[in-house]
């Protein structure tokens, strides 16, 4: 019988005790060790604990409490920079790839961070290549700006081409004007189209209508999403089979695809890394 690999992470007892005293339980301690490795984590804890806000699932508030245990000063520049990076990173959860300065300041106040010279800290973060400032008013996490630029470049390149699909459809009367306009643009023959909108604007309704329309026109299509959970939600919303983008591309490695359309949902800026993948479809 083949022995299964264990997912248990062994942690130096002294390091685990230190993390526990700082308020990090077993699960978060394991996550930190898995992210950094023991030696690097020990160095971070002794030099700049605020660095660990970059680890997913570690909130600024939790790190701030740990820093107070270690007697960090509230005006420590490392605290201020970490707060800004946390705010910009956390903005992804609300669909933003960047924030303007006034929103950064607003979010910092929620963390009880009041900066007299925000411009100076932002300039230093830009020099350290932690953030990117676009047109003097859009502030990005460094990696996210580059990912967005790459994705935009791919979309622009593929958007040059037209497809020869001729799709017949009748838009439901209950669609509002913006939804009707979106459907017309999505089905007018572009090689790539993007549907965006806030909660409740009808993205799911339109996606379901597109699926029904493609099926009525005897066109093949595939639904995919960045995660298994997102794929399941997509299935429930459209009554069509969906899968993760990774599984779809893995299947594509073993043969040619024969789909007229690929519908991909990317609910968060965090998924920009997988949003690039359809360029090879």
Structural features, described:
The structure is a single chain. This protein is mainly alpha-helical and 281 residues long. The chain is 49% helix and 8% strand. The chain contains 13 helices and 6 strands. The strands form 2 sheets. A 3-stranded antiparallel sheet has the order 1-3-2. Strands 5-4-6 form a 3-stranded parallel sheet. A hairpin with a 3-residue loop joins strand 2 and strand 3. The longest helix has 17 residues, at 142-158.
Concise summary:
This protein has 281 residues and is mainly alpha-helical.
User: Which range does the strand content fall in?
Assistant: 5-15%
Number of DSSP strand runs: 6
SS-based class: mainly alpha
Largest sheet: 3 strands, antiparallel
Report the average pLDDT across residues: 84
Q: How is the quaternary structure best described?
A: single chain
Radius of gyration: 23 Å
For the record, give the distance between the C-alpha atoms at the N and C termini, rounded to a whole number.
Answer: 40 Å
Spatial ordering of strands, largest sheet: 1-3-2
Spatial shape: elongated
Helix content bin: 40-55%
Order of helices and strands: HHHHHEHHEEHHHEHEHEH
How many helix segments? 13
Low-confidence stretches: 1-6, 273-281
Write the layout of secondary structure elements.
Blueprint: H1 13-21, H2 26-36, H3 38-47, H4 60-69, H5 77-90, E1 98-99, H6 101-110, H7 118-127, E2 131-134, E3 138-141, H8 142-158, H9 177-186, H10 203-216, E4 221-225, H11 228-238, E5 242-244, H12 245-252, E6 261-264, H13 272-275
Parallel strand pairs: 4-5, 4-6
Antiparallel strand pairs: 1-3, 2-3
Helix pairs in contact: 2-3
């Amino acid at each position: 019988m083949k022995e299964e690999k264990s997912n248990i992470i062994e942690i130096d007892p002294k390091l685990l005790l230190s993390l526990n005293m700082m308020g990090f339980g077993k699960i978060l301690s394991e996550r930190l060790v898995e992210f950094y490795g023991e030696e690097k984590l020990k160095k971070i804890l002794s030099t700049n604990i605020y660095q660990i806000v970059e680890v997913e699932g570690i909130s600024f508030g939790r790190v701030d409490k740990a820093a107070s245990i270690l007697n960090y000063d509230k005006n420590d520049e490392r605290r201020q920079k970490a707060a800004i990076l946390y705010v910009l990173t956390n903005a992804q959860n609300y669909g933003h790839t960047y924030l303007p300065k006034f929103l950064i300041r607003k979010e910092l106040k929620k963390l009880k961070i009041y900066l007299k010279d925000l411009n100076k800290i932002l300039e230093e973060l830009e020099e350290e290549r932690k953030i990117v400032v676009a047109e003097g008013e859009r502030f990005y996490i460094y990696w996210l700006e580059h990912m967005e630029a790459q994705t935009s470049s791919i979309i622009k390149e593929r958007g040059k081409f037209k497809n020869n699909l001729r799709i017949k459809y009748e838009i439901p009367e209950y669609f509002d004007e913006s939804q009707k306009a979106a459907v017309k643009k999505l089905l007018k023959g572009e090689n790539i189209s993007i549907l965006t909108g806030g909660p409740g604007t009808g993205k799911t309704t339109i996606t379901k209508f597109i699926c029904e329309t493609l099926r009525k026109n005897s066109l093949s299509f595939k639904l995919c999403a960045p995660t298994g959970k997102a794929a399941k939600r997509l299935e429930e919303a459209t009554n069509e089979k969906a899968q993760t983008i990774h599984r779809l591309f893995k299947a594509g490695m073993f043969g040619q695809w024969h789909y007229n359309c690929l519908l991909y949902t990317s609910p968060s800026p965090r998924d920009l890394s997988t949003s690039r993948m359809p360029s090879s479809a």
